[in-house]
Design a protein that fits this description.
alpha+beta; about 180 residues; 6-stranded antiparallel beta sheet; about 25% strand
């Protein structure tokens, strides 16, 4: 989503020194704020965000294969959304998917997202969730988790050949 921003004209008459404000991006405090304060409804947030991302992937792919949502039950206590969109390369997962406030949707008003927070919304509900990419015959499974320093991290769990069509799945464990 394109954000409307107008340049500010500020006069700093008599100013002798300027410094921009910054963010300590490698701070557990910042990630705690993003994880715990950004969303008021901790259950609905990742459901809404991941369904919106799946819908955007559906639109980007231009195909007629709808995304799927699997609700948790006793034998599979996880919530899953699986799209059949363009998927993501490993480089995109490790570069775009995990960077807060970075989005591939900045230049489009045709897609829902654009703030660069939705892909991380699973952390509003849980300290660990799974991302699975299906791309050109390869399935890559990633685990996203909060590490011992209380910082979010992502690890590749496995790669394997697959017959699954391209797309992406997000799996969130669900508490009883």
């Amino acid at each position: 989503m394109k954000l409307a921003t107008a340049p500010a004209i500020i006069e700093t008459q008599g100013s002798t020194e300027q410094t921009e404000f910054r963010v300590n991006a490698n701070s557990a405090k910042l990630f705690d704020i993003l994880q715990n304060s950004l969303y008021t409804d901790k259950i609905l947030a990742p459901v809404r965000e991941y369904i919106c991302n799946a819908y955007d992937a559906y639109k980007e792919a231009g195909n007629n294969v709808p995304f799927e949502v699997f609700v948790p039950h006793k034998n599979a206590p996880e919530w899953v959304v699986r799209d059949y969109g363009p998927s993501m390369t490993h480089e995109k997962v490790m570069g775009l998917f995990i960077i807060y406030l970075m989005s591939s949707k900045d230049d489009s008003n045709d897609l829902i997202g654009g703030f660069g927070t939705g892909s991380k919304s699973g952390f509003a509900y849980t300290d660990q969730f799974t991302v699975i990419t299906y791309l050109d015959g390869t399935m890559t499974r990633y685990v996203c988790y909060i590490n011992a320093q209380r910082l979010p991290e992502i690890s590749v769990v496995n790669r394997a050949p697959t017959d699954e069509p391209n797309g992406l799945a997000i799996q969130l464990p669900v508490r009883e």
